């Protein structure tokens, strides 16, 4: 068999297509993975819609998808015996780094200036098989549920965001309850947060936020967020802001609710440049510390993720709300885009 089913962006513009593609060949330092599960990321929705970011970044044709789990079925001739081998159950770090730039030399691989992203710059995981560098393969415990294993790349964003600040005994405001925001709730709880308030404009996702442990979940379109949020923290403001949405209004409101001397970790990407942000009064004069979060720390965040899942401190299963065969990819993408879902997992070959 030399052909496989895959979902690809074949040309610029909205939409994607199910295609028959060649099973990828592997290089000397690559592994070939039979994809058992692949989950949908917000990035995939952006690519489907073909927004300004996608138009400026992608070069179709390209198989998309970067969150997955599967089994290694072949390895290149230069893969060492102490590295992942045929039969291993793996997930993958989606950032393929150069290893030679200054950031990599300093161990800051997550900000490598030559990063290539699986499913964005190279063919991705919405397929029956994917070839990746052996350095990017992460061996999973044999008993890890397949859908959970496919979420780890995205879960790492949440772990990196929460772990960049000190939430122990702190009041935490999470703006944005997409999957990364939802996953940050049990992570913040596991790391010792005292009070967690979450905001979003999707009633569906606010209900999920309550389900996974938020003390209070508020809709800025319906609730007086500033009054209700301040009530739960006794009008003292929040110690920590985790901004997961990229929405301008959420960032401004979140910074406003931070107490002087607080910390903010910003993961959400804004669709357009933010204008009229009062840095003087929201950040500088309050002595706020801001952390910009990109991807996961390689591999520190992955070891944190493994410990959180293995110990039972974080259970990702409630965040998985839909499962589909890959053949129903378009229905799955539409549900993800609607905001009426948590994580969605798809199964190639099903």
Give the CATH superfamily of the largest domain: Medium-chain alcohol dehydrogenases, catalytic domain
Fraction of residues in helix: 25-40%
Give the CATH class of the largest domain: Alpha Beta
Unreliable stretches covering 5 or more consecutive residues = none
H/E series? EEEHHEEEEHEEEHEHEHEHEHEHEHEHE
What is the rounded distance between the termini? Answer: 17 Å
Overall, the morphology is: globular
The whole-number mean of residue pLDDT values reads 96
Number of strands: 18
- Beta-strand fraction estimate: 25-35%
Quickly give the CATH architecture of the largest domain.
Alpha-Beta Complex
Number of helical regions:
11
Main beta sheet strand tally, sense and closure: 7 strands, mixed
Structurally, how many domains make up the residues?
2
| Structural class by helix and strand composition | alpha/beta
Describe this structure in words.
It is a single chain. By secondary structure, the protein is of the alpha/beta class. It contains eleven helices and 18 strands. The strands form four sheets. Strands 3, 5, 6, 9, 10, 17 and 18 form a seven-stranded mixed sheet that branches. It has a six-stranded parallel sheet with strand order 13-12-11-14-15-16, sandwiched between helices. A three-stranded antiparallel sheet has the order 2-1-4, with no helix packed on it. It is globular and about 65 Å long. The two termini are 17 Å apart.
Task: Summarize the model shown.
By secondary structure, this protein is α/β, with parallel strands linked by helices. The chain is 29% helix and 27% strand.
């Amino acid at each position: 068999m030399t052909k496989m089913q895959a979902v690809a962006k074949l040309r610029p513009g909205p939409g994607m297509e199910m295609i028959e593609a060649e099973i990828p060949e592997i290089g000397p330092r690559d592994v070939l993975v039979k994809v058992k599960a692949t989950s949908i990321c917000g990035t995939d929705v952006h690519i489907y819609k073909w927004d300004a970011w996608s138009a400026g970044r992608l070069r179709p044709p390209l198989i998309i998808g970067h969150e997955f789990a599967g089994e290694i079925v072949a390895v290149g001739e230069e893969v060492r015996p102490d590295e992942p081998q045929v039969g291993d159950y793996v997930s993958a770090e989606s950032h393929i780094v150069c290893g030679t730039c200054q950031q990599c030399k300093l161990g800051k691989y997550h900000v490598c200036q030559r990063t290539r992203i699986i499913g964005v710059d190279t063919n991705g995981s919405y397929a029956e098989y994917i070839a990746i560098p052996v350095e990017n393969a992460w061996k999973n415990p044999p008993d890890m549920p397949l859908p959970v294993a496919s979420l780890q790349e995205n879960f790492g964003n949440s772990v990196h965001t929460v772990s960049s600040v000190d939430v122990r005994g702190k009041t935490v405001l999470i703006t944005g309850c997409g999957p990364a925001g939802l996953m940050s709730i049990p992570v913040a709880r596991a790391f010792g947060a005292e009070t967690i308030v979450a905001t979003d404009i999707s009633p569906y996702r606010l209900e999920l936020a309550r389900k996974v442990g938020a003390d209070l979940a508020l809709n800025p379109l319906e609730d007086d967020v500033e009054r209700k949020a301040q009530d739960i923290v006794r009008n003292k403001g929040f110690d920590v802001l985790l901004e997961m949405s990229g929405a301008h209004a959420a960032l401004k409101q979140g910074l406003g609710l931070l107490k002087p001397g607080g910390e903010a970790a910003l993961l959400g990407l804004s669709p357009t440049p933010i204008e009229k942000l009062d840095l003087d009064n929201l950040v500088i004069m309050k002595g706020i510390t801001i952390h910009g979060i990109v991807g996961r720390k390689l591999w520190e965040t992955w070891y944190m993720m493994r410990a959180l899942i293995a110990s039972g401190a974080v259970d990702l299963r409630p965040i998985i709300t839909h499962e589909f065969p890959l053949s129903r990819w378009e229905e799955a993408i539409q549900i993800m885009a609607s905001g009426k879902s948590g994580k969605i997992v798809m199964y190639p070959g099903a």
